[in-house]
Amino acid sequence: MPENTASRRLDQPRLGRTRFEVDPDWFARLSEKVARFMGTGRFLAIQTVIVIIWIALNLTAVSLRWDPYPFILLNLAFSTQAAYAAPLILLAQNRQDDRDRISLDEDRKRAERTKADTEYLARELAALRIAIGEVATRDYLRGELEKLAVKLEDRPVRLRVSRPADE
């Protein structure tokens, strides 16, 4: 008897049957690590030592000559390394460009928020200055009191002496 097609959709994959899951970004991360390592002095030193040993063994050890003088096998190894190194470096650069683009977008959004906050604070400060302009400030009151003190000093003082009504 055929399967019940009402419960099974043919346009969607079966769920729960995947045995092998792969992180889609693992190769990019690996290539980045390899490209970073290839750009270090340690890699160049290791490669230089290997090349010197390769050439020395092929020139001196008669019984071990697997790659005689023109060193065609060594040249092939370098060509293969270059053929893989260039795409790995480009892939690492593309990932770095993606990270830079995301960082730039975040910086742009942060700058827009900062600008909006600054404009808001400038408007609030202007409103406060206008409101304070209508309020008597300490300096204004001090000036008015000083003017009043000067006027009082210039005016002659008249003392009224009250006399008792009995006299």
UniProtKB/TrEMBL annotation:
The chain crosses the membrane at residues 43-66, 72-92. It comes from Pseudonocardia humida. The lineage of its organism: Bacteria, Bacillati, Actinomycetota, Actinomycetes, Pseudonocardiales. InterPro entries: DUF1003. Keywords: Membrane, Transmembrane, Transmembrane helix. Pfam families: DUF1003. This is DUF1003 domain-containing protein. The keyword Signal does not apply. The keyword Kinase does not apply.
